[in-house]
Amino acid sequence: MISLLSSLVLAILLGSASSELWFKDLSSLDGRIVGGHPVIIEEHPYQVSVQLLGSHRCGGSIISEIYVVSAAHCYLIWPDSWHSVRVGATYHNNGGEVIAVNIINNHPNYNPDTYEFDISIISLTSPLTFGPAVATIALPTPRQYIVEGTPAIVTGWGAMVENGTAPVPQLQAVSVPVISNERCHEFYQVVGDNITDSMLCAGYTVGGRDACQGDSGGPLVANGQLIGVVSWGEGCARANFPGVYASVAYLRYFITQISGI
User: Of these residues, 28, 49, 84, 216, which one is catalytic?
Assistant: First the structure.
């Protein structure tokens, strides 16, 4: 049972589901689906809502009966046992099935200052039952090259406008093209941020469509594979600042180490 003091601290720090002030400033972790459209879970059955004490915390992707991929920056404070995963639900707060979390495995090299190695592998206490609304997403091979311009889809329950309310009730999706790390680094070095090998970028240089706070940890999918995990970005859907994701291909060995997949 959570103590009264713990509950008060939790309420202060959580505030609303869109508050992630204990990670980085909001300008850098302003993660939402912007410029997208509502979808149903059967279109993206690998998508899950990772919840903290019953409230949406971050997104995640099903990779097996008992493993979910998410972002390390989502899980720095609270005990693993305070988390659960809602699967098979179009709405983050209703429907589907809620499964308790067993262990949250953050990458040992995750850097909260630079967001390198921003990936987490979550194990569940019981196996999932697959069906039209619950399914795995395939993984790329280790260090698989993702061609610039490859169309990808990112999904989540994040707010739909910068500084908007999050999470939104219904799952949203938006299509964004992959941008090379070299070109993405040119954009971000203007504000002193680095794009490293453990990252992947996707978005439009003109802005307008993006994900990067209620969407954190969620999937970026291309050609039926999970290529990215929503990680960070400068603001939300701003021109010349594409969304930055953890590169699943680069971090593939860690996924295998934890899950055996």
Answer: 216
Q: How many CB atoms lie within 10 A of CB 135?
A: 17
SS3 call for 184: helix
Please choose, from the candidates 100, 120, 102, 101, the residue with its C-alpha nearest in 3D space to the C-alpha of residue 110.
Answer: 120
Task: Quick: pLDDT tens for 1-29.
Answer: 333 333 333 433 444 333 332 233 333 34
In a domain? residue 116: no
The count of other CB atoms within 10 Å of the CB of residue 131 is 11
Catalytic residue (one of 70, 83, 118, 120): 118
- Residues 191 and 158: their CA atoms lie apart, in Å, by 24
Q: pLDDT tens for residues 147-160?
A: 999 999 999 998 66
Instruction: Decide if 192 is inside a domain.
Output: yes
pLDDT tens for 165-201 read: 668 889 999 999 999 999 999 999 999 999 999 999 9
- 28-43 pLDDT, tens digit per residue, is 343 346 667 899 999 9
Q: Identify whether 73 is a catalytic site residue.
A: yes
Is 83 marked active-site? no
8-state DSSP, 90:
S
Of these residues, 56, 73, 92, 107, which one is catalytic? 73
- Structural domain for 165, as ranges: 151-247
Tell me phi and psi for residue 140, to 5 degrees.
-75, 165
Instruction: Kindly state whether residue 181 falls inside one of the protein's structural domains.
Output: yes
Are β-strands 83-87 and 47-52 bridged in parallel, bridged antiparallel, or unpaired?
Answer: antiparallel
Model confidence, pTM: 0.87
**Total of domains in the chain:** 1
Tell me the two tokens of residue 125. 């206490």
Between CA 110 and CA 198 the distance in angstroms is 10
